[in-house]
Amino acid sequence: MIDNRLAPYGALGLRVALGLMFIAHAYLKLVIFTPAGFAGFLGQVGLPGALAWPIMLAELAGGFAILIGFYGRVVSVLLLPVLLGALMVHAPNGWVFNAPNGGWEYPAFLALAALAHGLIGDGALAVRPVRFGAQPVPAAA
């Protein structure tokens, strides 16, 4: 059963955590790993280094959009290929993310969290929430 009084705040918590995670990972790639270092890493795992900037920008812009709730649920679904790509890169390393080169459970969790956000919706305090299908208009009090 869903508590309709509190569910929007649960969705808000999910949205904020997911948005901050994308922003943090973009920052990590931009400042710590550097774009050249991230491009080199992509090359080492068999992906084109040219994907570095699009991935970093998608994580940064997408993270902010999710955080503030600007079409957040759509952005979460659109970022699923980034998360699934990370999952495929980390899958050979085993389960635990603190394994050498990181395991696959964290990217898998994030992909499921992004999918859940896409299904649940943006929740409370969203700047531009997205609603699919016919939504009943609440009666004036």
TrEMBL record:
<keyword id="KW-0472">Membrane</keyword>
<protein>
    <submittedName>
        <fullName>DoxX family protein</fullName>
    </submittedName>
</protein>
<dbReference type="Pfam" id="PF07681">
    <property type="entry name" value="DoxX"/>
</dbReference>
<comment type="similarity">
    <text>Belongs to the DoxX family.</text>
</comment>
<dbReference type="InterPro" id="IPR032808">
    <property type="entry name" value="DoxX"/>
</dbReference>
<keyword id="KW-1133">Transmembrane helix</keyword>
<feature type="transmembrane region" description="Helical">
    <location>
        <begin position="77"/>
        <end position="96"/>
    </location>
</feature>
<keyword id="KW-0812">Transmembrane</keyword>
<dbReference type="GO" id="GO:0005886">
    <property type="term" value="C:plasma membrane"/>
</dbReference>
<feature type="transmembrane region" description="Helical">
    <location>
        <begin position="50"/>
        <end position="70"/>
    </location>
</feature>
<feature type="transmembrane region" description="Helical">
    <location>
        <begin position="12"/>
        <end position="38"/>
    </location>
</feature>
<keyword id="KW-1003">Cell membrane</keyword>
<feature type="transmembrane region" description="Helical">
    <location>
        <begin position="108"/>
        <end position="127"/>
    </location>
</feature>
<dbReference type="InterPro" id="IPR051907">
    <property type="entry name" value="DoxX-like_oxidoreductase"/>
</dbReference>
